[in-house]
Amino acid sequence: IFATTLLQNAKLLLYYNSKGTHNPIPPTNMMSNDISKPSCSNVTRKIVSNDTVDNILHDNIISDTEDISDMSDTEVNKERWGHSAILLLISLYKEKSYMLEKGNHKKMWIEISRCMKEKKYKFTGSQCSNKMDALKRRYRQIMDHNAQSGNDRKEWIYLDVIC
Question: Where is the Myb/SANT-like DNA-binding domain (predicted)?
Answer without folding.
Answer: 79-160
